[in-house]
Design a protein that fits this description.
The chain is 56% helix and 0% strand. By secondary structure, it is mostly helical. Helix 1 runs parallel beside helix 3, helix 4 packs antiparallel against helix 5 and helix 4 runs parallel beside helix 6. The protein is rod-shaped, with a radius of gyration of 29 Å.
Length: 176
């Protein structure tokens, strides 16, 4: 039987800390490695039998080091690091979370406080909600739902107060 075209597992890897064994791979790590293999197969970088062997080995891998070896020769795979450096390969890093807009949080808080404050926070909720939605469209931050919640609750509070004032004015002029 011929040797597979990808490197064999070695007990020590450049990205592995010196004194501890390789970190155990999670299900998410295995899925990321299989995604990299699928991309490589889709680009024509390997034949189907090799792809199937690598996928089977990825699902059977126990450590992140084994997974990194399976994708090391693919463009999305880990870049070899100099000895002594121990970062996690880029293919196994979590996806960065989108930052939530602070004004959107403020709008939602003000909107929720409309009930206990009898509508005093309605205007700030509307102002913060509109400002937050404009910033979110411009910067790509998260929190559009929070800003919309603040806007809706703020406008409902303001409409309620406007209705109360109109009714008071009608009663005042009718009693007159």
């Amino acid at each position: 039987m011929s040797q597979p075209p990808y490197p064999q597992w070695q007990p020590w890897q450049p990205w592995q800390p010196h004194s501890t064994p390789s970190m155990l791979a999670s299900h998410a790590d295995r899925e990321r490695a299989v995604d990299v293999l699928r991309a490589g197969y889709g680009e024509g970088r390997m034949e189907q039998p090799e792809f199937e062997r690598r996928v089977a080995r990825a699902y059977a891998a126990r450590t992140v080091g084994e997974l990194a070896l399976l994708v090391a020769d693919l463009p999305q795979g880990p870049v070899p690091q100099p000895v002594g450096v121990s970062p996690v390969p880029r293919a196994f890093l979590p996806v960065p979370r989108v930052r939530t807009n602070g004004k959107a949080v403020g709008a939602a808080v003000c909107g929720l406080l409309c009930v206990p404050t009898f509508g005093l926070t309605g205007i700030p909720a509307v102002v913060l909600g509109h400002a937050a939605r404009a910033e979110i469209r411009r910067s790509g931050e998260g929190g559009d739902g929070l800003a919309l919640t603040g806007l809706v609750l703020g406008w409902l509070s303001n409409a309620g107060w406007a209705l109360v004032l109109v009714l008071l004015a009608v009663v005042f002029f009718a009693a007159g």
